[in-house]
Each structure stands twice: as structure tokens, then as C-alpha cells.
Amino acid sequence: MRGFALLALGGAMGLAAPASAEEIVVKMAGSAYAPEVIEARMGDTLRFVNDDTIPHNVFVPTAGYAIDLGKQDPAAEATLVLRQAGAFEVECVFHDFMTAKVEVTP
Ligand SMILES: [Cu+2]
Question: How far is the CA of 11 from the centre of ligand 1 (A)?
Fold first, then answer.
């Protein structure tokens, strides 16, 4: 199952993820990322799933990691491949109280 998900992602991104990489699902119900603290490894993929009833977003303000995955309507998903070790914050541009921390180990 893990291999299948990575294969699908690799096709979408035009890149193959390392065979050992994992996918970590982050949900958004109740305007909160779950989990709020994410420990991952380089090469892993975060799959943000909006299982809430209102739009959310994934925005990374941390220098060196900055990215905006855009608005996610309910049921929409967005993925982020972790290519760099370190720590960064995730926040929703629509709800400033909605944050998560990601720690990426090599
Ligand atoms: Cu939000």
C-alpha cells in the first residue's frame, strides 16, 4: 500500500520518491492540523487532506522552506515532499491559529 501511494505520487510529480520514503497523512478537521507535531525523514511525503467543511491551506513561512500549496477546499488534498532536513512551521493563511511543526531528520 505504501509503495502504491508513492508510485502514484511519483507519477504526479514527475519524480520517483526513494523506496524507503513514507507518506504521512495530516488532516485538518476542526481547523487544526492533526498531528500538529510531525516527525519525518528526508524523502518522506506529507499528504495534507482537508477533511473539514471549510477551505484551508498549507503555507510554510520558515526561511529556506517557504512554500504555499494553495487553497484547499473540503476533500482536497495536497502533497509536500520533504527534501531538506531541519524544522519548519506550517500555517493556514485563513486561520492564523492553525499551525503545525515539522521536524525532518536526514
Ligand atoms: Cu485553515
Answer: 28
Ion ligand 1, residues whose Cβ is below 5 A away: 56, 92, 94-95, 98
Span 71-93, average pLDDT:
97
Delineate the domains of the chain, giving CATH numbers in brackets: 20-105 (2.60.40.420)
The secondary structure of residue 2, as a DSSP letter, is H
Does residue 86 come out as left (phi exceeding 0), alpha (psi in the -120 to 50 range) or beta? left
pTM of the model: 0.80
Query: In percent, how much of the chain has pLDDT > 70?
Result: 82
